[in-house]
Amino acid sequence: MTKRSFFGAAAVVAAVALTGSALVASNMGFKLNYSLDQTGAPVPGGTSKVGINTLALPDNRQSGLNTSIDLMNDIGFAGTASIQRFIKASDSLEVYTGRKGSPNANFNLAAGEAYYVTMTTTTPYIVVGSDDPALTYTLNAPQAGVSKSGTNFFAYNYHQTAATSKALMDDIGFTSTASIQRYIEATNGLEVYTGRKGSPNADFPLVPGEGYFVVMTATVNYAPSHY
What is the pTM of this model? Predict the structure, then answer.
């Protein structure tokens, strides 16, 4: 039950030109063909229920990809209904449609933050960029005014060695991580893995391009292990 994508290494020169920053190693650049599916499109487990997809962008995005409207335009504005980001302080979603009457304004994109993308047309989206091994991401535990429940919408790194939900928990710090959750397009629901006895679901593979909800019991400044 994984998202369909094609993952390949990008040339160093191309990656540097797109990101405007030097790469630490040649294998840090990439190009990903990632399917963003509309309602009714075939997806693992059935068909997309509401046309919502998760999207993890790289740390070093291509030039000009800085805001939610930039992302909509890059995907294809006519086929993109909205970009949504998760607000940790309220456990809610901030929705930007790019149209008159949008419930929220255009917002900035941030490294390490995943997004929901709602599609009206299935689009094979080409993601180009690189991860920055020097970056750390703050995964917050519950804290008044910061995180309501310790839930973080994490943009899974493209060259990360943790390849499953259990491996990601271990890489973050198992004792500080309550669960890893993935979005299931066919049901518009979440699959929860706790790594403990009685977990409602089994360990699952992680997919480049997907975002995951990471629930924390202690705040961790996380530096993903890379290859």
Answer: 0.89
The rounded distance, in Å, linking the Cα atoms of 143 and 136 is 19
For residues 156 and 215, membership in a common domain is answered with: yes
According to DSSP, the residues that pair with 214 across neighbouring strands are: 152, 180
Model pLDDT for residues 44-75, shown as the tens digit of each residue: 999 999 999 999 999 999 999 999 999 999 99
Q: What does the block give as tokens for 181?
A: 């959750």
Tell me the residue range of the domain where 26 lies: 5-130
What are 94's two structure tokens? 């901030």
Paired tokens of 46:
């059935």
Residue 227 lies in a domain: no
Which residue type occupies 161?
T
Strands (E) across 65-188 are located at 80-87, 92-96, 115-119, 123-130, 137-139, 151-155, 177-184
Same domain, 40 and 148: no
pLDDT at residue 163, as a whole number:
97
Give the mean pLDDT of the chain: 90
Based on the structure, what is the number of domains in the chain?
A: 2
pLDDT tens digits for 173-192?
999 999 999 999 999 999 99
Contact between 182 and 153 (Cβ < 8 Å) = no
φ/ψ (deg, to 5) at 63: -55, 135
Structure-token match 């997809």, residue found: 53
Instruction: Kindly provide the residue ranges of all beta strands, DSSP E only, lying in 88-173, ordered along the sequence.
Output: 92-96, 115-119, 123-130, 137-139, 151-155
Half-sphere exposure of 110 (CA within 13 A, CB side): 13
Q: How far is CA 67 from CA 72, 98, 105, in A?
A: 9, 11, 10
Other C-beta atoms closer than 10 Å to the C-beta of 174 total: 12
